[in-house]
Design a protein that fits this description.
Oligomer: heterodimer
Radius of gyration of chain B: 27 Å
Mean pLDDT of chain A: 96
Helix content of chain B: 25-40%
CATH superfamily of the largest domain in chain B: Pyruvate-ferredoxin oxidoreductase, PFOR, domain III
Strand order of the largest sheet of chain B: 11-10-12-13-15-14-21
Strand content of chain B: 15-25%
CATH topology of the largest domain in chain B: Pyruvate-ferredoxin Oxidoreductase, domain 3
Low-confidence stretches of chain A: none
CATH architecture of the largest domain in chain A: 3-Layer(aba) Sandwich
Largest sheet of chain B: 7 strands, mixed
Order of helices and strands of chain A: HHEEHEHHEHEHEHHEEEEHEHHE
CATH class of the largest domain in chain A: Alpha Beta
Shape of chain B: globular
């Protein structure tokens, strides 16, 4: 860190140690459509922030373009509402330049997986220590209702009046395939679960990728109701918990077991199966993470939510710092004098 | 036989061979030796886009030209006086740059039937009389190299790789140079391979001795040291100077340098150079694409780094939206465009100046960006420092233009002393009282730089239009126009903070030749020659393209004719005509090649007629 930056951030204003959610709420009016799932996500993030024990001035929210990308305006932290798809790259540059900051990237299914898909996969493989919140509503909301890279096959939208012929991405599988070290899924309508996942994402060292199912009540209302509404949720959703068997159902009477590499649903009441037969979740197992993520568009099994994978791997910015430290210890700190006298020189008298 | 020695003021040599023949290395060694012997010089490599094109084809020819002299040297030379051709294809490609009566040294082994066929010769130019207007020296370099190494039991591949040193040895003899510098270099380069030290050294000496002994070479030439300003020098290419300039700017500004970049010819060497400066705290990020190169830099700028992205024209096209973002969020950023032939992929390894209008105007919306250009390889250093100063002081992206010719060309650089380099003193806002993200300095109109991590200054920036002073998102019509005018005026005010333009030659007269960028040395040579003939011609070379220096109009009005030579179809001239309503005359060349001085001299003659 340059001394100029060091001096600026070591300013003697004492940061508040104990925050409340309100401390993270900016003076700007929130302008999402009434009923938008984004309100809940904003609230859960603001509620979780005080638990992270990070001084507010160290927190930066970076976003791209889209409904979700208005997020930074509503957070009383540093914020950067940038251009379409590039928040991941801006966030990477910021974190590499300033490893002391807590960098959050807010993006959507269009911003993060379509126009910004390339930066997303490279961020994940580099494992820069930033947190990605990807709001997935399976639609382009800000441009008023075109299909997105997560819209289902056959989706009828303004730009696909005869139905989409694109296969959707499964964001969790994409993140795992890109070498992501923390991959999770949550939903706007389960505040407690979402808060828990946001907290774990913040604690993870390396890129954390959190897909949040978010209802767009204007252009894609009810896209996730099967997973979020009381009547259907318990039979359609399985929550992944590290070290615990995969159990679901209204009366916790169903579970997932592995048949070869394929997850299948079994009844715990059929007299044949018991909890001992079930798959036990292990968030350190990257092979298992792929199997679980692949349950996503499999209609024979419930949809998994929770943390697919949380493993430790070297962080890009740490490795850069190490190279700098090692170069300085080997060659000494560079100076202008040394720089200008480097190379093959000769003297004209 | 008694050898004669003739003294020359200046000489241009072109080393040419197959791309695997080591011609760049040979030229580089000749350059370093000549520089150390006190000649002024200028060099230019000319290599194919293919990394290893099929052997002995014309599209696999690699060349390196050096112009050195006892006088001031401003260009790599319009033509060469000596051509070293290691095979038939290299003779075919390069013969047109040789002057009548010039010297050709060929490796006869490179003129076998197969070589001739691949080069497209129906019969050997060495025997059909087609080279009768040149002095041709035929040497079987391959055979002599093999003989020199006969007792060393080296593989044929290794032996073949040393034959460029035989050619170098002959040239060292012919131009009365010492072999000591290169021997030292060989020792360092092959420190861990003693047999290669022995082989290369032996072959170079064999070349030198062969020229000394054989009757083929009757004349050797002497080029005395030039009258250079006393001081410490190093030879430097434009890309090296650019890299050093940014490290220097970061040190002067007391900031860390961050480079976000994606490999692209001819800019990649800047990334390579900067990635070695880790002990200066330089962070280089090889991004996944051009867009991530610039946006990562913008992220680093937000965090308080001196942020840089380096590329060539196609890369600038991809970065354009992000440069507009930097204009909007008013963060310091330098974009280096090492221009190459376009459009599209164009001519990646060839030079052109056709991105000037892209630099000045090529963004959506009213998005003014300061643009400055380098005029010689070593001037890239000053230009990088100046681009950084402007970016940091005015909180703006700055476009720095160089080109393939400057990037790869080299010249001796008189090392500046640390104290002569201008101070750069960026400031971070730290006081939370009354902070407004878009409040501006009264003189520069720049906003304050408030970096994350500073308590009490939490704020949001972004690409949406800003409300004046507060920086909040704002869609009001009057505010939008006010902000557009403010951003434009901020860039215009840079003209108050840069030196006035200087005419070289008389300040009034018949003809002013106005140039920018890499054509400096060529125009200077042409103008000086014409002035010696008594012609009323002067030169104005513009470093600052946007904004222009305040006195440019006044200078233009002092001349009856204005000539603007550019390696494009007329771009600077459009700006000059529209801004100053002058009837400037264009001279355009778009062949992927630099101008030759003679081309500019002819145009000067045409405009001035017989008039002095």
């Amino acid at each position: 860190m340059s001394t100029l930056v060091h001096d600026a951030i070591s300013h003697d204003v004492v940061s508040k140690v104990k925050y409340t959610a309100k401390d993270f709420s900016s003076d700007q009016d929130v302008r999402w459509c009434p009923g938008c799932g984004d309100y809940s996500i904003l609230a859960q993030v603001q509620r979780t922030m005080p638990e992270l024990n990070v001084p507010k001035e160290k927190v930066v929210f970076v976003s791209g373009i889209g409904c979700s990308s208005r997020f930074p305006y509503y957070m009383e932290t540093y914020g950067f509402h940038s251009i379409h798809g590039r928040a991941t790259a801006i966030g990477s540059g910021l974190k590499i330049a300033r490893p002391d900051l807590s960098v959050w990237i807010v993006t959507g299914d269009g911003d993060g997986l379509s126009i910004g898909g390339n930066h997303m996969i490279h961020l994940l493989r580099r494992n820069v220590d930033v947190n990605v919140l990807l709001f997935n509503n399976q639609i382009y909301g800000l441009t008023k209702g075109q299909y997105s890279p997560t819209s289902e096959f056959g989706k009828v939208t303004k730009s696909t009046p005869y139905g989409s012929v694109d296969m959707p991405f499964n964001p969790a599988s994409l993140a795992l395939g890109s070498g992501g070290t923390f991959v999770a899924r949550s939903m706007d309508r389960d505040p407690k679960h979402l808060q828990g996942i946001v907290k774990r994402a913040a604690e993870h060292k390396g890129t954390s990728f959190v897909e949040v199912y978010q209802n767009c009540n204007v252009f894609n209302d009810g896209a996730f109701f099967q997973f979020t509404e009381k009547e259907t949720k318990s039979d359609s959703v399985v929550f992944l918990e590290h070290g615990k068997p995969l159990v679901f159902g209204k009366e916790s009477d169903k579970g997932i077991k592995l048949d070869g590499f394929s997850p299948v649903v079994v009844s715990l009441k059929d007299g044949v199966h018991s909890a001992n037969d079930l798959l036990i979740h292990n968030e350190k197992d990257s092979t298992l993470a792929f199997i679980l993520a692949n349950m996503t568009y499999n209609h024979d099994v419930p949809r998994p939510f929770g943390i697919f994978l949380a493993i430790d791997r070297p962080r890009y910015e740490d490795e850069i710092e190490k190279q700098i430290d090692s170069a300085i210890s080997k060659r000494g700190k560079g100076s202008l004098e040394k720089l200008l006298n480097s190379g093959d020189t000769w003297v004209i008298q | 036989m008694e050898k004669q020695t003739r003294t020359l003021d200046e000489v241009t040599i072109r080393f040419a061979g197959d791309s695997g023949d080591g011609m760049q290395l040979t030229g580089g060694q000749f350059t370093n030796t000549s520089a150390a012997m006190g000649n002024d010089l200028s060099t230019l490599p000319d290599y194919p886009a293919e990394i290893r094109a099929p052997r002995d084809t014309t599209y696999g020819v690699s060349g390196f030209q050096i112009h050195f002299g006892a006088t001031e040297i401003n260009t790599p030379g319009d033509h060469c006086d000596v051509l070293v051709a290691m095979n038939a294809a290299s003779l075919k490609v390069n013969l047109r740059s040789l002057i009548d009566g010039g010297i050709i040294i060929v490796n006869t082994d490179g003129f076998g039937d197969r070589n001739l066929k691949l080069a497209g010769y129906a019969q050997s130019p060495l025997s059909d009389g087609s080279l009768s207007k040149y002095q041709v020296f035929q040497v079987d370099i391959t055979k002599l190299t093999n003989l020199a190494l006969a007792d060393m039991n080296l593989g044929q591949k290794i032996v073949d790789k040393t034959k460029n040193f035989f050619a170098l040895g002959m040239m060292y003899w012919m131009f009365n140079r010492t072999v000591d510098g290169t021997i030292q270099w060989i020792k360092e380069k092959f420190e861990k391979k003693p047999e290669l030290i022995e082989a290369n050294t032996r072959v170079m000496k064999a070349g030198w001795n062969y020229a000394e002994t054989t009757d083929i070479f009757a004349v050797k030439y002497e080029v005395k040291p030039a009258q250079l300003t006393p001081g410490k020098y190093r030879n430097i290419t434009g890309n090296q100077a650019t890299a050093l300039g940014f490290v220097t700017a970061a040190e002067k500004a007391n900031l860390d340098l961050f480079l976000g970049s994606y490999p692209i010819t001819p800019a990649s060497d800047i990334l390579h150079e900067l990635s070695m400066f880790k002990n200066y705290g330089v962070k280089t990020f090889q991004a996944e694409d051009e867009i991530a190169g610039v946006t990562s830099a913008i992220g680093a700028a937000f965090g308080g780094s001196l942020a840089l992205t380096t590329t060539s024209g196609p890369g600038v096209a991809l970065k354009t939206e992000a440069i507009g973002l930097a204009v909007m969020v008013e963060l310091p950023l330098v974009i280096v465009n090492v221009q190459r032939g376009g459009p599209s992929t164009g001519l990646p390894t060839k030079t052109e100046q056709a991105d000037l209008l892209q630099a000045v105007y090529g963004r959506n919306g009213e998005a003014p960006v300061p643009v400055i250009s380098a005029s010689t390889p070593s001037d890239c250093f000053n230009t990088a420092v100046e681009a950084s100063r402007i970016a940091l002081k005015y909180m703006t992206p700055v476009m720095m233009l160089t080109d393939g010719y400057l990037a790869n060309g080299s010249e001796p650089w008189l090392l500046p002393s640390v104290k002569d380099i201008p101070e750069i003193a960026p400031k971070f806002r730290t006081d939370p009282d009354g902070y407004m993200p878009y409040r501006r300095d009264e003189i520069t109109l720049s906003r304050e730089w408030a970096i994350p991590g500073t308590p009490g200054l939490e704020h949001r920036i972004g690409g949406l239009e800003k409300q004046d002073v507060t920086g909040n998102v704002n869609y009001e019509p009057e505010n939008h126009e006010r902000m557009i005018r403010l951003r434009a005026e901020k860039v215009e005010r840079i003209a108050n903070d840069i030196p006035l333009a200087q005419v070289e030659g008389d300040e009034k007269g018949e003809l002013l030749v106005v140039g920018w960028g890499g054509t400096y040395g060529t125009i200077k040579t042409a103008v000086e020659r014409k002035r010696k003939e008594g012609k009323s011609v002067s030169q104005l070379h513009l470093k600052y393209i946007n904004p222009l220096q305040k006195n440019v109009g006044e200078i233009l009005y002092n001349f009856k004719h204005i000539l603007v030579p550019e390696i494009n179809m007329g771009q600077l001239i459009k700006i000059l005509r529209s801004k100053f309503l002058v009837p400037a005359i264009a001279l355009n060349k778009v062949q992927g090649l630099p101008y030759r001085s003679i081309e500019i001299e002819e145009k000067i003659d045409e405009i001035l007629g017989g008039k002095l």
